[in-house]
Amino acid sequence: MNENSTCRRLLQIGGILLIADGIAGIVMPRRRSLLWHVGPQLVKAATEEIADHRRTARAVNAAKTALGVVLLTR
Questions:
Q1: Where along the chain do its domains lie?
Q2: How many of the other CB atoms lie within 10 Å of CB of 45?
Q3: Which keywords does this chain's UniProt record carry (predicted)?
Q4: DSSP letter at 17?
């Protein structure tokens, strides 16, 4: 297997994961944000902020989904 096909496969996997994660975040933004409420205080504060602002969370997740689509179409 050559490096080019491996790279393409990794981009495909990354795109699929971004799309799935983005859709999950659009459908249930608060639940999805609080799932990552672990680690340093900065990360916890960010997840709480996103959980409190559902429209912002949905916008971020829509952008994530769009990025996944871009990766898949490259």
A1: 3-73
A2: 11
A3: Membrane, Transmembrane, Transmembrane helix
A4: H
